[in-house]
Amino acid sequence: MLELRLVQGSLLKKVLEAIKELVTDANFDCSATGFSLQAMDSSHVALVALLLRSEGFEHYRCDRNLSMGMNLNNVSKMLRCAGNDDIITLKADDGSDTVTFMFESPNQDKIADFEMKLMDIDSEHLGIPEAEYHAIVKMPSAEFARICKDLSSIGDTVVISVTKEGVKFSTRGDIGNANIVCRQNTTVDKPEEATIIEMQEPVSLTFALRYMNSFTKATPLSNTVTISLSSELPVVVEYKVADMGYIRFYLAPKIED
Amino acid sequence: DTKQGNILSFFKKV
User: Which residue of A has its CA nearest to B8?
Assistant: First the structure.
């Protein structure tokens, strides 16, 4: 028996909007730790890891570990029927081939049940080793989204370079090239407006902008984004999900041919 | 010239 009650149901709506472009079908895993997902895009270039810790739910009952295969587009269709202020509860019986999404309006005057068919998905779970990153950039998520969008109108790839001068995003295309430098800036009114650069050593990596733009679908989840870079490793683009967890996007770099 | 890397060459199946 599984029963997860999330008072801030809008978080789950935003999570689905953040990942459904990248991944078509995925297994949602429930355990005592929380509600999680790990999936790659169809070309195995990017990986998304979601964790919503059990403590973040108002009620969390998971009698035994459960893996539920879902088509994310269908989950999104279901969750779009929930109001932004609704409380969302996920329910599944042991051995059932369906999951039920229950939506409750804040004043309890409307309660809806949406039952969705589960699917069998063969998925490979990957071990993500703990890594020391050469550079970690924390910046406003809207700023990062703007940069990715702007650069993708010029080129297909972005070179992200971190030096003691700041973080530089560069692209080049048929019509010309573009460079955007963001310097560390902690003298802001609100902490979420700060750009903080922690650099152990300079690093420069090239990535496909198409994927970066897809990751920025998570922007409504968090005012800030953290970008962790090391040479020879996929970049990690992380958005916190309130105080209950995170979405981490891993993207393999472009490498010299 | 660059080519796209693959996640599976960085993270191993468990």
Answer: A44
A25-30, strands of its sheet edge to edge: A66-71, A25-30, A34-40, A46-53, A245-251, A235-241, A224-229, A135-140, A196-199
Residue partners of A74: CB distance under 8 A and separation at least 6: A116
| Closest chain B C-alpha to A96 CA, distance in angstroms | 27
CA distance A117 to chain B (A): 28
Does A252 touch chain B if contact means CB atoms closer than 8 Å? yes
Set of chain B residues whose Cβ sits within 8 Å of the Cβ of A255:
2-5
Q: What is the pLDDT of residues A151-178, one digit of tens each?
A: 999 999 999 999 999 999 999 999 999 9
What ipTM, to 2 d.p.? 0.97
